[in-house]
Amino acid sequence: MTVTAERPAELTPRRPDRGPGSRADGWIRRAPLLPALVFTIIVTQLPFLFTIYYSLQSWNLVRPGSRQFVGLDNYILVFTDSQFRQVALNTVLLTAGSVLFSLILGLLFALLLDRAFLGRGFIRTLLITPFLITPVAAALLWKTVLFDPTYGLINFVLSPFGAGDTDWISTFPLTSVMVALVWQWTPFMMLLILAGLQSQPHDVLEAARVDGANTWGVFREVTIPHLRRFLELGIVLGAIYLINTFDAIYMMTQGGPGTASANLPFYIYQRAFLGFDIGQSAAMGVVVVVATIIVATFALRLIFRSFSGGEET
Amino acid sequence: MAEVEFDQASRIYTAGAKPAVNRLDLEIDDGEFVVLVGPSGSGKSTALRMLAGLEEIDGGQIRIGGRNMVGVPSRDRDIAMVFQNYALYPNKTVGENMAFPLKMRGVPREERVTKVKAAAEILGLSEYLDRKPRALSGGQRQRVAMGRAIVREPQVFLMDEPLSNLDAKMRVSTRTEIAAMQRRLGVTTVYVTHDQVEAMTMGDRVALLKDGELQQFATPAELYDKPANAFVAGFIGSPAMNLFTLPVSEEGVRMGSSELALPRALRSRIADAGLSTVQLGIRPEQWSVGSDATGSGVKAQVDVVEELGSDAFLYAHLDDGEQTPVVVRTGGRSGARRGDQIALTPTSEDLHLFDPSTGERV
Prior knowledge:
The complex is a heterodimer.
Chain A: H1 23-30, H2 34-55, E1 57-58, E2 68-69, H3 73-80, H4 82-113, H5 120-132, H6 135-146, H7 153-158, H8 168-171, H9 173-198, H10 202-210, H11 215-242, H12 247-252, H13 264-274, H14 278-307
Antiparallel strand pairs in A: 1-2
Chain B: E1 4-11, E2 21-28, E3 33-37, H1 44-52, E4 59-64, E5 67-68, E6 79-82, H2 94-104, H3 109-123, H4 138-150, E7 156-160, H5 168-185, E8 188-193, H6 196-202, E9 205-210, E10 213-218, H7 220-225, H8 230-235, E11 242-247, E12 252-255, E13 258-261, H9 264-273, E14 277-282, E15 287-291, E16 298-307, E17 311-318, E18 325-331, E19 341-346, E20 352-354
Parallel strand pairs in B: 3-8, 3-9, 6-7, 7-8
Antiparallel strand pairs in B: 1-2, 1-4, 4-5, 9-10, 11-14, 12-13, 14-20, 15-19, 16-17, 16-19, 17-18
């Protein structure tokens, strides 16, 4: 006996003309979101289009009547500007350094806070405090209270050892800014990693101990793989915030000496609002946005991979 | 392989409070399968974790192969443990999970691979070696946990309720597999469960704990036939043994309005103990059921009939004014129905007698 199965005439389901799933129904759902979309376009995309437009102009505010269309000249200047390259490198160093050091310190503090000891709650509160301070105030604190060559606490502490006369901020401008940023961002990393540590199932740790792992073995083989997604998240979020650092640089070094401690946002600000070179700074802005989009695409992919990794049970 | 000894081992969580495990004494022979069983909070898991080195030994000693384990970390005890929730490493594949104990002991890579493959073969996990635990079913995860324990070839296996997360059917088949594997490997095994059926079917010997104290440590048959006290009697056996506290009379005991004659041997044991009331234990299968009309025996009324096919359990209450519940096993399709009046007579001479004040066997 032969059975002939009838092939379905249409393999793809057709969109219904009305009711749920129809084109009209889709618009009923989407329409309430339109105002938000329009608003977002107005405040983010239109300025960007203006920026692109300005970047094709030669326009310096201190020379009235200088405005003229110059094509891609501004971009050529950006890429031949050695200062811009220096500042781009500063940005990478500052972001990567701050994220990395605050991640390592955060991991150490999180491991400390993950064990029970007397006064843990109090210590935890103290450790979180730097994150709660306004960034400008924190930068000012580091500049005046700690790093100041005359009144600074660091020199005061070091003076008995005969090393108390360094002008930290002028000698190591980028490092000084990085120290302040690490100080402020360590609590964030610590909290994130602590959440990871405390979500670790106890029986897995016990199993590793029974299976013959020593403390380091448990940490390397069980804890670190478990923390991986938390570390990744810390890196991505930290990088997103720290790449835009402005306040610390503005308060501590003004990007100086020269451009030794300037990062891209600060350099663009200098060019636009201190140098009044709108065309040049607009071109830099566009370059930075494009670069950021490229980096962020990878970064976002990393975030989504962390979250879509599936539940570990 | 080694013998395991609990010597007055205690675990005290808070000073002054009742110990979680109180002066536990167990001598487990080499290659023996011992089940620790008891209700929740009996200290059975704590005792196992003390043996594993996951809990402190606050008093006494625990010895593995004659070596005192007080202060010895888990990794130096040469044991392998199967956890209730399996505790597999979520970021490692099945093969890496099973190889982990070997890796931590510095076993070379080729040897690890060979051993893991052999163990996976036994457990039917060969095709899953590259999967992550989350892609496995509960039963497969359980077997990975077993595999991780057996590749080690440890001196002692410790198992903490390894079957409690499996469905009923799987539990029965895995139960047999574990018991068979243990017999073949001949590794001393300590197994914790709250399920007395698992305890009875798997263990060479069973240690019954309650409130951190050992109640009885004996073979399953002995535990069933000669329970050391009323608690053991009530815990072992399903449905539980019927326990009645009854006044002693001339010919035996008074049960409600009727008199239950006891064999001479039992009567003399009561007399020797000098008891005026006694706790009488009768297992559900130690009753014979007659219809009410025949007269002799204890009168009862059936409340519920549990028909299991091969046999049936009658849940009834006695006509003694206090509605004392009683469970009776009869053959399947006995025809008994709710509301039936029945007359019960003990069939066996081996009834259990306990001192009502201490609960100890008379």
